[in-house]
Design brief:
Number of domains: 2
Strand content: 15-25%
Number of strands: 7
Radius of gyration: 20 Å
Order of helices and strands: HHHHEEEEHEHEHHHEH
CATH architecture of the largest domain: 2-Layer Sandwich
Shape: globular
Largest sheet: 7 strands, mixed
Structural class: alpha/beta
Helix content: 25-40%
CATH topology of the largest domain: Nucleotidyltransferase, domain 5
Mean pLDDT: 90
Number of helices: 10
CATH class of the largest domain: Alpha Beta
């Protein structure tokens, strides 16, 4: 990957919105890395899908940038950033469930266990399961191997938000009795089409269901970032935080 890859760094207004998350207390010894420079370096990696070693020299030492990224991941800073950007999420009335596949690059395959990498007909894949609202704000994301059925993490996704009075849009793969009962018990309405072999037919608003294009557009936008459209990270934690980063920057 050429270091001439075009990428725009954050503007002052964009950085001022989130900079307090990444500020560190002064300490004795080697001067800390500039957090804005580190963040812009991560944006370059996210957009380009390049190897860390290909990071342009203007951002500094790639190894130092990577270790700072790992520290931010362990501190949950990208999750906190998502909550700040989604500050008005509780005002939403419509929630959407869905998932998408990401091809796992051969450099991400390793002997490490439990890294959300699985085998399917398309080879090695990671599946991104999301819950988001009508403003395309990501509320919860879970990674699994590509062989995991979409409905398996659905309850865990739904538990992350207050459901009372909300309408849940999802395709027929989520049309299980367990999910419908869970939604009913929590005061939520299901707008989920029945599978063809269901004997009991449930109420379904086909006009409202058309708004599922929101989650499809969300996946299209985050997959414009090459580091999300293809998984290059061996560690699920790193890939998850790049997904969170992509979900945040589409709202900058």
């Amino acid at each position: 990957m050429s270091n001439s890859f075009y990428h725009k760094d954050l503007t002052d207004a964009q950085w001022n919105r989130i900079k307090f998350l990444f500020e560190e207390k002064p300490k004795v010894g080697r001067p800390p890395l500039n957090p804005r420079t580190v963040f812009n370096a991560l944006m370059w990696i996210l957009k380009s899908g390049a190897r860390w070693r290909d990071l342009p020299a203007r951002y500094g030492n790639c190894n130092s940038i990577y270790h700072k990224f790992r520290k931010w991941c362990s501190l949950g800073l990208f999750e906190r950033m998502m909550k700040i950007i989604n500050a008005d999420k509780d005002n939403s009335t419509l929630l959407e469930l869905d998932s998408t596949f990401c091809k796992v690059h051969q450099s991400a395959c390793s002997a490490l266990k439990e890294q959300a990498i699985g085998s399917s007909r398309g080879g090695k894949n990671t599946k991104i399961h999301v819950l988001l609202n009508e403003r395309m704000q990501l509320l919860k994301v879970i990674l699994t191997g590509g062989q995991i059925h979409d409905s398996e993490p659905a309850i865990e996704l739904l538990k992350s938000v207050a459901l009372k009075g909300k309408t849940i849009l999802a395709d027929k793969v989520y049309s299980s009795e367990q999910i419908r009962v869970f939604l009913a018990e929590h005061g939520a309405f299901a707008c989920i089409p029945d599978k063809a072999n269901f004997k009991i037919k449930h109420a379904f608003d086909s006009q409202l269901y058309k708004q599922r294009n929101i989650v499809e557009r969300f996946f299209q936008r985050i997959k414009n970032y090459r580091h999300v459209s293809t998984r290059y990270d061996k560690l699920a934690l790193c890939f998850l935080n790049f997904v969170l980063l992509a979900a945040c920057v589409i709202h900058f």
